[in-house]
Write a structure and sequence with these properties.
Lyase, Ornithine Decarboxylase, Chain A, domain 1, 367 residues, homodimer, 12 helices, TIM Barrel, 2 domains
Chain lengths: 367, 367
């Protein structure tokens, strides 16, 4: 343990802040009577998923089958894969997983629905599905409208599939120009989904679950009547992009990367041992560039992480800054979810002291 | 094995192309009478390092101590860490590694040199060091000039340190506007280093090794008399950034990422199961933006990987393209070296058929 503490680059999680973040989102959902199903792609750590469940989450969300398998192995019993699963190898794994836990999966095409139906029939399962809706991110999902009603109708005709509801991810909120626009996108996300659910019901399709959510939009979408479930992920940690969107304050940020100055080649330049293989190149999700540099150096406003190569971070210094080889800096990364995916373990701390080492068990589980 | 083949996203290495790339660089060095010490950060796979040695490399280069440890475990006996190693925990590991193999390490400050000297004295070692020179990347390293002569002189006064020579990395070649500028930077890199070596010798400091190299500049720097060693890394795979620099052709690219179409939500849009957690966000090293999109879809010029979120790649389609859910595409990534770091294993193929699974043993070894 001692060695890890001083060996950089290291991903550090402030466990007190983490627990506070987990509790605050749970409290928001309790207050609104909405189910919380946090997305674990942000942390990929079973212990954190279990803490989220303990705090009141009804289950978890995963992006990939491999993540879901890893979480099931750790004892999570209710998982939604908010993605399309296709192809024989993955469908076989999906069915095996569905046999052991309460599993649901996204669908946004009839072609994929038929694959899901077939594997469910072959394995004697009834597979829970949710139709993915595009509320503005323009990634996967059907646009709200008659095509959703039609797909829902066809899904209901298949006894091996159980249509639970609809889901969306308003990830375009990460392209917002500020908190007001984030709020607008969040409310719109909730309203579009609630209205679509009413239309589906009017067309004879029961809609048990209306699931929305991203960390920026969660609190706004939660205000909309008819929304039944939130799926934020990043809120366990927050990061510099969330700060830029006005979603959190520095004091909420639970994940940092600790790095060491390895070179001071010029008065206005220092180099740390964390590059893009520790901090990643994210400047703002989905193409936006919200932030200055590649992370916030805590307590050192005169330092800017100006460039990253793979294993080097190049810092620009205000002339007044004192920084020498061997000095350790602590960085709030731009995007916590992709940083986590670069580390096998994270160091859990309490009040700045090492408390435990957590394994990022679902790291790299992109299949 | 069969399952892996169809399960995407998967990193695929064409072993025939890989071997050809390894042999071509070895032949270039043989022809020039220059030592080859390839950088393994690009592949992080012991079997590939051993193949490079078998083809004539005199040793390998690593960016991090953890990478070097992993390669030593696999039987590599001569490793240069082209980086500054600082701090008690790492220096202890460095000494342990140096006791078992032929190890050399970079240095660019007197402060760091004293640390190296101390651990060498404490453990009874003589540590081989090379002074890092900044030939234009402006990352680590001393600018060529009297400060190098001075540091070299001080290093030679320490009996526990053995000054082997000087090294540089002209990574600013990745910011070049085209092949002509790449060539200019490469020749300049070699000439600056050769001249500095002459100055050092004139000042009484023997210079055994004058080490340069990046994949783009390697062939140009190798033309300069006085250069003794090349350290290219990426050439084992090449990638879309190398193509943009005119360094390689599509047929040389040995690493691809295979992905599956999971959604076809609009006529001009498809979504694949490879996002930034499989392809990374690189658009060109060191801040340049050399390429269109986030990789080249092989054989499909009508497809552009326009956006990446963590687990989704969003493709823009020419209207004439036919692409459906379940279709598999093969992508030359923008930057092979960071893609490799996202996968635990890669699938080795020969003539399109699965041949072996290679473990990316040094993946994530950023400490």
């Amino acid at each position: 343990m001692e060695e890890l503490l001083f060996d950089t680059p290291v991903a550090v999680v402030d466990l007190d802040k983490l627990e506070k973040n987990i509790e605050q989102m749970a409290a928001l959902c309790r207050a609104r009577g909405i189910a919380l199903r946090p997305h674990i792609k942000s942390h990929k750590i079973p212990e954190i998923a279990l803490a989220q469940l303990k705090a009141g989450a009804i289950g978890i969300t995963a992006a990939k089958l491999g993540e879901a398998e890893e979480m099931a192995r750790a004892g999570v019993k209710d998982i939604f894969i908010a993605n399309q699963i296709t192809g024989p190898a993955k469908l076989k794994r999906l069915a095996a997983l569905a046999a052991g836990i309460k599993l649901s999966v996204g669908v946004d095409s009839w072609r994929n629905a038929r694959e899901l139906d077939q594997i469910a029939r072959e394995t004697g399962l009834v597979l829970d599905v949710l139709v993915e809706i595009d509320t503005g991110l323009h990634r996967c999902g059907l646009e709200p409208g008659p095509q959703v009603i039609e797909l829902a109708k066809k899904l209901r005709e298949r006894p091996s599939l159980h249509l639970k509801g609809i889901f969306t991810h308003a990830g375009h909120a990460y392209g917002a120009r500020g908190p007001a626009q984030v709020e607008e996108i969040g409310r719109d996300e909730g309203q579009v989904m609630a209205q679509l659910a009413r239309q589906l019901k009017a067309a004879g399709t029961p809609v048990e679950v209306v699931s929305v959510g991203s960390t920026p939009t969660a609190r706004h979408a939660a205000q909309v009547p008819g929304v039944t479930e939130l799926r934020p992920g990043n809120y366990v940690f927050y990061d510099a992009i969330q700060l830029a969107l006005g979603v959190a304050a520095v004091g909420n940020c639970a994940l940092t990367v600790r790095a060491t100055v390895i070179s001071r080649p010029a008065p206005d330049r220092a180099v740390i041992d964390a590059g893009s293989k520790a901090l990643n190149l994210d400047k703002g999700a989905h193409g936006a560039s919200l932030v200055r540099g590649f992370g916030i150096v805590l307590g050192r406003p005169g330092l800017t992480i100006e460039r990253l190569s793979e294993e080097h971070g190049i810092l620009a210094l205000d002339p007044a800054e004192i920084l020498d080889v061997g000095d350790v800096v602590e960085i709030i990364p731009n995007h916590a979810c992709t940083v986590i995916n670069l580390f096998d373990t994270v160091l859990g701390t309490r009040k700045g002291k090492a408390a435990e080492v957590l394994r990022v068990a679902a790291r790299g589980k992109s299949r």
